[in-house]
Each structure stands twice: as structure tokens, then as C-alpha cells.
Amino acid sequence: MLRMSTATTSTKSSGKTFFGHPGALASLFSVEMWERFSFYGMQGLLAYYMYYSVTDGGLGMDQGLALSLVGAYGGAVYLSTILGAWLSDRLFGSERVLFFSAIAIMLGHIGLALLPGYVGLIVGLVLVAIGSGGLKANAVALVGSLYSKDDPRIDAGFSLFYMGVNIGGLLGPLLTGWLQVKYGFHIGFAAAAVGMAIGLAIYAMGRKKLPESGRIPSNPLPAAERNRYVVIFVAVIVLIIAAFASKIVTPQNLASTIAYVVIAASIVYFALILRSKKVNATERKQVWAFIPFYIGSAAFWALFQQQFTFIAAYSDQRLDRHLGSWEMPPSWVTSINPVFIIIFAGIFAALWTKLGKRQPRTSMKFGLSLVVVGAAFLLFIPLESFVKTPLLALVGILLLCTFAELLLSPVGQAIATKLAPAAFGTQMIALFFLSVSLGTTLSGVLAGYYTEGNEIPYFIGMGGTAVVLGIAMMAATPALKKLMGSIH
């Protein structure tokens, strides 16, 4: 079996490099940048499209329900990484799954742009969710395949990759938000479709630069078992349709349902990997070590992803967005975090590269991230007395969230590749994204507990819990070091 992050010919070649990293990183940087352009361009409008009145171009949905559904949708995107990872590891390889996932994303944005009302919403979001899930896990897997496990550049490489994510995340909401204000929601969604089409074209031209290992399944499914899995997939689809048709699952309980599904899927995934005969004793210890990172990641994203739920509504209704006589579209707040990522991702990457083996252990980075994002939420407390929150105050809070993100997100993707058993490379990355799925879903669920005028308990609960978990994560470093062995 090929190990996902084993050094490849591309890694060792003396060809062109990308800021000192393997040249193939540029192709992955590009496709992820344009995918994030389209995804965040659409998501920056999504809550407003749902709860704005029909006369304002929206669907007229209850605001609380809309925010819950935005969280549920975000969770579903990351949940679908399971499917993308399985197709990669068992059938097609990461590179092919990534390519066809990009096509699905483009078609989804076209559906949002052209199909009216709830039909367009459902068709578009389903296609984007499936496509984004397939692209996310496999893009990360391909980045991991460019480095050997002991290459000190890997964290820096993921940080550069993450910069591409945030260039797209910056530009997407700026363009779609402006188009929405000037021409309406559907023109904004159309711009997201065009962005994904550009990314797909660029990636198609650079596919040959990627390592051959990305085209080969790491744990191929025997032909004799394929019919059984077809039956399983059909049964799952029928079950989902039946759950909605019988109203067991409704829009009102969709977010909590997805949270339960993600928790169950994560437990099953961990159990399958830990019990697999293809996982040796050392790898099994490393999988056990990954569980605290999973929990810490879910807690972080439950707060961070509230940019698209609670903070989206807060920016629309409570934030002073005036710059002189001009009022900034509320969706532009989504671009503040990417601006800081672009500024600081390179600094963090350079820092990890310079420190090399002396940099803090991953558990320390995770713990500090949780403390910082918790502190950011606690800083909302003194703003309760303002009639309108100053824009600079929210910018400062989002700066702290950015530092927390850079300490956890690219590092979390890297640790997933480092701790992955040989036979479960992409699927371990899917487990990391399942933690993001759980956190994102919870961001919608938790936003429902926010009550304007009684905000302090909400912020103390959110921020205080994150700080406590962060301290616990740092305290667990010695125990995790024993399980992780030589992996830093």
C-alpha cells in the first residue's frame, strides 16, 4: 500500500519550487483558492438570502431558523468529506475525486443562480455540499503527499496552502456582497459559479504536475465487494429521503440531527480504524492520540464558524458599518478574517520553518488556539452597552480569531496527515473535517441560544468553555507525547 504522505518524486525533484516548497503545491493552492472564492462568496450571502424578506430578494425565513440551517449546511459540507475520502482511498484516488468534485461545486452555484426559490436553494446547496466535501479532504491529502513525514516544511506548506484558501475567502464575499447589494442575490451566486469555473480550468491544466500516488487508491476496494457498497449507498439515500418525507427530520431539527450523525460517524470511524488489522501497534497509538485533537478542533470551530451564524446577524443588525457616509454591506464582514490570514499566514509559516524541531508541540498550539478564541468571545461582553458596536471593535475580535485559526487549522490538517495509518490516509483527514463538521453544525445550534439584551451569559458560556478546554489540552501534552512517539 502507498502511504499518503510518503515522499514522492515531486518532493525530491529539482524542478521549480513554490516559495521553497514542491512546485505542485501551486496547482493545489490555485484550485483551493477559487473553490473558497465561490464557497465563501456564496456563504457570505446565505443567511441573508434565507431571512431577508421576499421584497428584499430573500426567502422570508425566520431568522433563528435561517441561522440554524446555515450551521447545518456548513456541517453537512464537512460531513460529506467522508464520502470524498472513501471514494479516494477505495476507488479513484485523491486527484480524480478532487477534479469531479470541483465540477459538482460549479454546477451547484449555477443552480443557486438560475433556479428560483427553495428549489434553487436545495439543489444548489446539495451539489455544493457534496462537491466541497470531496474537494476539501482530497486537496489536503494531495498537499500531504508532497512531503515526507519528517519534512520540517510540512506545517509551513499547509500554512501557505491555507493562505490560498483565504485569498479566495477574502475576494469572494467582497465581489458577491457588492453584486448582491447592486443587482440582487442571484447575480451574486452567479459570480460564485464563474469563480469556480476559473479554478476548475486552471486545475485541469496543472493536473499532470501532481504526484502519481494521488491517482492510486491507498486501500483499493476488491471488485467482489463493490455491489455490496452500491446497495449500501442506495439504502442510505432512500433512508435520507424517507426521513424527510416522514418529517422525522425537519428544517427545525436538521442542525441537531446532523450533529448526532457526525458524532455517530466519528465514533464508527475511530472504531473501524483502531480495530483494523491493517493498522499496526504504533499507528494505533497515534490514532488514540488524535482523539483529543478531534475534540479540541470541534470546540474551536463551534465558536469560529459563528462568523456565518451569530456574527452574521450581529453584523447586519448591531454593527456600525458606516465608513463616512457609505455603509459597508454586512457580508463584507466575512472578508475581515481572510485579510488577516493573508497578512499573518506567511509570518506563521516562516516562524514554524525557522523554529523547525524547536517549535511548540501541536497540542500546545491547539490549546493556545482555544484560549485565544475563548478570549475573543469574552471581549464581546463590554460591547453589550453600545447601541451600535464600533466596527474596529469587531475587527479586533476577528483578529484574535485569526490568530487562533492559524494556531489550529493548518496545524490540524498537518497532524492528521502525520498521525494517519498507511491504509487510512485520506480518511484520517476526513476525521479532522468531521470535527470541523461537528463544530460548524454546533455554531448554528448555539447561535439559537443568543438573546439580544441578555448576552453576557452566552459569551461567558462560549468563551469560558473554550478557555478551560485549551488549558486542559496544554496540560495533556506530556501524555500525548508518549502516544505520538517521534511525531511532533
From TrEMBL:
Q: Where located?
A: Cell membrane; Membrane
Which species is this record about? Glutamicibacter mysorens
Name used for this protein in its record? POT family proton-dependent oligopeptide transporter
Keyword flag rRNA-binding:
no
List the transmembrane segments.
Answer: 37-54, 66-85, 97-115, 121-147, 159-179, 185-206, 227-245, 257-275, 287-304, 332-352, 364-383, 389-408, 429-450, 456-480
* Broad class of the protein's primary localization: membrane
The upper taxonomy is: Bacteria, Bacillati, Actinomycetota, Actinomycetes, Micrococcales
| Family affiliation | Belongs to the major facilitator superfamily. Proton-dependent oligopeptide transporter (POT/PTR) (TC 2.A.17) family.
Which stretches make up the Major facilitator superfamily (MFS) profile domain?
1-481
InterPro entries from the xrefs?
Dipep/tripep_permease (IPR005279), MFS_dom (IPR020846), MFS_trans_sf (IPR036259), MFS_Transporters (IPR050171), POT_fam (IPR000109), PTR2_symporter_CS (IPR018456)
Topological relation to the membrane, as annotated: Multi-pass membrane protein
Query: Which keywords does UniProt give here?
Result: Cell membrane, Membrane, Transmembrane, Transmembrane helix, Transport
